[in-house]
Amino acid sequence: MKLILICMAAALGLSAPSSADAERPDIDTDTIDNFIVSAMQKLHIPGAALGIVKGDQLLYQQGYGYAGPDKTPVTPQTSFVIGSVSKSFTALAVMQLADQGRIDLEAPVQQYLPWFRLADEAASSKLLVKHLLHQTSGLSTYDGQKSLTKGNQPIEQHLRSLGGTRLTEPVGSVFQYSNLNYDILGGIIESASGMSYKEYINKHIFIPLHMNNSFGSPDDVTNLLAAGYQPVFGFMLPTRQAEHQGTVPSGYLISSVEDMTNYMIAQLNKGDFRGVSVVSEQSAELMHRPAAPMWGDNFYAMGWTVNNNRIYHDGSTENTYSKIVLEGDYGIVLLTNSIDFFHIDSYDQLMEGVSRILHGNEPMVDIADPDQTYLVIGIIVLIALAYTARSVYTLITWRSRLTTTRLKLIMHALEVLLLNIVIPLIILLLVPKLLVPWSVIFVFLVGIGHFMFVIPVILLTVGAAKAVLLLLSIRKLEL
């Protein structure tokens, strides 16, 4: 087993554990490494980093694979974009300012952002800071997702653009996860502190917690920032992340596993990190207190999800994944420089496997095989391409294929109506309405998302041309 692990580690660029890690034999690091490397190979994850703490002690941190196309190995110091794990940092900043009396959780948002307006002005005035923290503002998940491609403006400009956004539930009534809630909190932090969001987070969280590889923008990164990867028709390829400013509070902070272990220690110890307190004990406890019912035994707190004694949050950007779990005295963080939205459950299972090993059990988790999924998708793509090519060819050769039989014309008209007009229209109109806007699909499902849009557009264009020709043919037949 040891020899197999060494060979697999070499293939993925697994760095050797530090001497500090080796002094803690109570953790089965070989089994953890073996599990992570095996899962990475199966899911085609280029690089990952893992950190484990207990109480106020670092137990283990490790880098796996490579950080980018140049094959630089991932280390615990490698920085990743941490996605929605950023929300707990935003909540921590709010609670720090609450401790200082500069933010009141019961106060209206407009007390800090007088210009803030949504489509319903009356509802805008009822929106309180606590509603944003608990994700009970009434802002929808859909609108939060839509904002992901509109975050290249500063926070204030981003929030000012929400004037036409409508609440889908009454303020304070039910949980609805929306990135917009935490973007608005970012604006409140700027207003209450008199600093930019990233300056505040750096000065009051990153620096006190010795998070030297954590940043508010890729432009500020001074160490190695992992390149993000996405599957393009099953091939894991590096992709460029869009610019984000206004959406940093909800999902685009940058950190490393080494830094995140310090952060977990503070979270596990009521805001204290080795004698430095970043928030009051009362506020630290309040951040983890269940507030808004989600599903089953899950409740949303403040930037955290709570399930009995497990406190956690995951984060997905267009090309990175992260998850942090606090359970009892233990804290575990996992960062990867890839994401596959067809197999997001398998990414979640990585953390479950590590947790089981940490507690002396076998991983016993189900890691899906992406190759099978993309084989099916590939077959569907080929069928769609074949029909599209046939549809274009029959349009080009229309005159030579034209028939004067009324029945055949009707049958052809039904085919065009169904396959060239109805189905493409359903895809083009319903997909963005029921799921997310096409602009978001293009970013988060590179290749497949573009295919899903382009093919229906081509079929619809061909269908419209054929419909005109069919009508002309029917008229000629009637004459």
From TrEMBL:
- UniProt key word DNA damage: no
Keywords per UniProt: Hydrolase, Membrane, Signal, Transmembrane, Transmembrane helix
Q: Which SUPFAM superfamilies match?
A: beta-lactamase/transpeptidase-like (SSF56601)
> Which residues belong to any copy of the Beta-lactamase-related domain?
33-338
Specify whether Cytoplasm is a keyword of the entry.
no
Lineage, top-rank taxon, reads Bacteria
Q: Which GO terms describe its molecular function?
A: hydrolase activity
Which is one Pfam family of this protein? Beta-lactamase
Annotated TM spans: 374-396, 417-435, 441-474
InterPro entries attached here? AmpC-like, Beta-lactam-related, Beta-lactam/transpept-like
- Endpoints of the signal sequence: 1-22
Q: What name does UniProt use for this protein?
A: Serine hydrolase
